[in-house]
Design brief:
Blueprint (H helix, E strand, L loop, with lengths): L9 H5 L3 H19 L3 H7 L6 H7 L7 H10 L12 H14 L7 E6 L13 H20 L4 E2 L14 H13 L1 E8 L8 H11 L4 E5 L23 E5 L3 H11 L2 H4 L3
Parallel strand pairs: 1-2, 1-3, 3-4, 4-5
Helix pairs in contact: 2-6, 5-6, 7-10
């Protein structure tokens, strides 16, 4: 259990980015688990979840605590005192959503723009395909930061937990174009073809038009739209360099990132 809380004062909380608030909530959750000396399965059962999957991801910081999860935590552990006096998991979740609205993720400079299927795999189930795709994308973000030296990565799904959090298409397109324009590299993570038309291929095309060196992690290049399948073969001075990485699993994709570190991107410059 870390001794230092990610957010230490109410003043810091008032100006914290949504990602930091999510990290603080995970820190408090790990402290609660340690205090109750529970397994992840026991803890999930206390929250009336049948399986520990989402709870484990919350505890490990791989997925922000959902609004419903925060409410269940407050009901199940009403006497648990958070480090920040006067706050509850539910109030922290509201602060996180408000911070996300005030500080759009598309502002500023990004080392990498990561595109992973989102709306095309949307469903209402907390353990559905969107949750799985989101979990894989967040693992890729962590790998790129830990092994390639990147510090600021744009991933639109980072704070989108469920269908209720989706923006209007025009707002999403505008924000994503702004973020892509301000990114050094583009990474596509689409190991399995989306079941419906997906914006990730629109973003891949935009990255080409904007001259962004790109890496595509796909199960097969046959799953790519026809015009993207040969993106890595073009020698045109009007196109950026593209590396198509055919991988069988997320573990293999992460393994390549770990093995090659920043060289995977340096070869594209």
């Amino acid at each position: 259990m870390p001794e230092r809380a990610p957010i230490r004062t109410v003043e810091d909380l008032a100006t914290a980015a949504p990602e930091l608030i999510a990290e603080y909530m995970a820190w408090e959750l790990r402290r609660l688990v340690a205090d109750t000396d529970s397994t992840h399965l026991d803890f999930a059962h206390d929250l009336d979840y049948r399986a520990p999957g989402n709870v484990s991801r919350w505890i490990n910081g791989r997925q922000p605590i959902s609004g419903e999860g925060a409410a269940r935590l407050d009901r199940a552990y009403p006497d648990f005192g958070l480090h920040l006096t006067g706050e509850r998991f539910s109030t922290l979740h509201k602060r996180m959503r408000k911070a996300r609205a005030i500080v759009p993720q598309s502002k500023g400079h990004f080392d990498v723009f990561l595109a992973s299927p989102m709306e095309s795999v949307r469903d209402e189930r907390p353990d559905g395909r969107y949750a799985a795709e989101r979990g894989m994308a967040r693992e890729m973000v962590a790998a790129l930061m830990n092994h390639c030296g990147f510090t600021n990565i744009f991933y639109a799904g980072h704070t989108i937990e469920s269908a209720a959090d989706w923006e209007a298409p025009d707002s999403s397109l505008e924000g994503n174009i702004a973020a892509l324009r301000n990114s050094d590299y583009f990474v596509l993570l689409a190991l399995t073809p989306p079941p419906r038309p997906s914006g990730v291929y629109v973003e891949a095309g935009l990255a080409l038009a904007l001259g962004k060196p790109s890496v595509y992690f796909v199960g097969s290049d046959d799953s790519l739209p026809w015009m993207l399948r040969a993106a890595n073969a073009h020698q045109s001075p009007h196109l950026p360099r593209v590396s198509i990485q055919q991988v069988e699993s997320l573990e293999q994709a992460l393994g390549r990132v770990r093995a090659e570190r920043g060289r995977m991107f340096q070869r594209l410059d």
